[in-house]
Amino acid sequence: MSDPQAARQLAEQSRKHPGAAIVLAYITWRASAYDEALTLIGQQEEALRMQPALRWLARAIGIRGDVLLAIGQERQALNCFQEQLQLAQQAHDVEMEGLAHNDTGVLLIWDDPERAVQRFQVAYELFKVAGVGHEANLGLCALNLSVAHRELGHHELSDDLLKEAETLILNARAWPYWIGVINQRLLRLAAQHRIEEVRQLVHNALAIDLPEDSRHTLQFFHAKAELEHGNAQGALVLLNGLSGWLETRQDMLDDYLDALTRAQHATGDLPGAYDTLRQLLQAVKARHARERATELKSLEVIQRTAEAQRAASALRAQAATLQALHQTSEERSLTDELTGVGNRRQLMQWTLRQRENPQPLTMAFIDIDDFKRVNDRYGHTLGDQVLRTVARLMQRLLQPSDLIVRLGGDEFVVVRPSAQVNEFSAALEALRQACQDHAWPMDAPVTLSIGLTTGEVDLDTALRAADRAMYQVKAQGKNQVLVFSSTDE
């Protein structure tokens, strides 16, 4: 997004890599070349499903969903986003998981902004926890949350989110997203008839080294703002300078011709307005024809993919297939559905293996402070978001080899065999601090009470000791890490 031409060159130089075609498909979709994007996806999708390369396949399916959304095929687009989400979760790909939620929100935003906010918020939390490297996507979610909250009449919150989005996206140099932010600011200023601020905003934006397409898009939004303000002649000058831009942005042609018609009419050029209106009608017909052709191409891609999948399935040995199904079922049975960490069954299986080779355990019992208040005051949807975010903080800040289990409700257990208690205690303190400092969407932070025990060989004994340590933390004021050993009793 910061330099599409450089990205295209790199992808062209890496044609043998399965992801190169998907990068090119993304670039062509961004340029509104929908047929080309679908062709590139179709050329690689069969191979990606056979490998399987889940991360790249999730990207391919997501781009196909974006193309379908752009041509009005919302049901098919939703199917793509749902498959993208499943693939991303299997691959532990936070970026694709977040974008699947975000794009589903885009699909919902005008018809059901409240549900769109929920999707955008989930995506926002995913990218917030993911941290460095996800600033552009975090900014995109903040932008979409701003628009959705504006639709719901939450103007102050919407403006705050727009400011956050602008900072994140500008620092990431994600120019297509940033132009969206600037357009929102232009619309809001124009609606208040603050045209001088509109002009200053455009002037400041053009002082940045933007890609050519972003500069032209900004010029178009400026023209629309001038038109809304009543400066039809100024709008006409800006619009007349954009005719070459439309050769590569056919997706903007309808809006451009509509604005040009209104500007010509307002300046008294009625013959020109009539001719432009005829061009607009022809453009709409041509767009509908392209959308039908793109829809047919998408159906062809889906059909070829389905045929390839059936052929591949026929070649697989039945035993291997059954083994894969069994493994998938086993993994799901050991995973907490809401948070993605282990569940009680996984802890029990781990206990059985521990008995075969006993070794000293270091165990933490973690409880979310006042979690019932979160559910009672803000609802279970936000409560579920809190649980997911706490689980992701654990996965990010603790060791990959740690066993992380949700016992139920707001209680978690973390087991680290043969650990140095000081090292583990420091990691848990970092987790507690990160949770307290996280940007929660409530009026108070979420805190953790953590009891830690060490030296026990028997897991049940360690669990009881860690549980007692956690309750001691509760009695001492919560939001602490307390180390407890059975020898202290």
TrEMBL record:
<dbReference type="Pfam" id="PF00990">
    <property type="entry name" value="GGDEF"/>
</dbReference>
<dbReference type="GO" id="GO:1902201">
    <property type="term" value="P:negative regulation of bacterial-type flagellum-dependent cell motility"/>
</dbReference>
<protein>
    <recommendedName>
        <fullName>GGDEF domain-containing protein</fullName>
    </recommendedName>
</protein>
<dbReference type="InterPro" id="IPR043128">
    <property type="entry name" value="Rev_trsase/Diguanyl_cyclase"/>
</dbReference>
<dbReference type="InterPro" id="IPR050469">
    <property type="entry name" value="Diguanylate_Cyclase"/>
</dbReference>
<dbReference type="GO" id="GO:0005886">
    <property type="term" value="C:plasma membrane"/>
</dbReference>
<dbReference type="InterPro" id="IPR029787">
    <property type="entry name" value="Nucleotide_cyclase"/>
</dbReference>
<dbReference type="GO" id="GO:0052621">
    <property type="term" value="F:diguanylate cyclase activity"/>
</dbReference>
<feature type="domain" description="GGDEF">
    <location>
        <begin position="359"/>
        <end position="486"/>
    </location>
</feature>
<dbReference type="GO" id="GO:0043709">
    <property type="term" value="P:cell adhesion involved in single-species biofilm formation"/>
</dbReference>
<dbReference type="InterPro" id="IPR000160">
    <property type="entry name" value="GGDEF_dom"/>
</dbReference>
<dbReference type="InterPro" id="IPR011990">
    <property type="entry name" value="TPR-like_helical_dom_sf"/>
</dbReference>
